[in-house]
Amino acid sequence: MSPSTKPLIREVQEETGLDVTSITNYLGEFDYQSGSGKKCRQFNFTVDVGRAEPVEMTEHDAYTWTSLVEEPPVTDAVKRVLARYRETADSTTPTRTDLSRQ
Hints:
By secondary structure, this protein is of the alpha+beta class. The protein has two helices and four strands; from the N terminus they run αβββαβ. The strands form two sheets. A two-stranded antiparallel sheet has the order 1-2. Strands 3-4 form a two-stranded antiparallel sheet.
């Protein structure tokens, strides 16, 4: 993988314990305010991982695996990202959704 992908791979590994094997798609970004009041920008990608379990959350409160036909309890901004993903993905593919940014 290219040097420009290393920060994404590192963040996924640090925050979830998952090993990214490839970055497959860029889904866009959105701005939000963190729980501490800090302005942030979230960049969203689809990735393949070497294993899907166990997820080891270190910086977030929770996650859930959902099928793409379900509506997870996330913000409207995350719902828009998931809608972009649904346009290109199989609806039976599970996805990990970060629930800490609501």
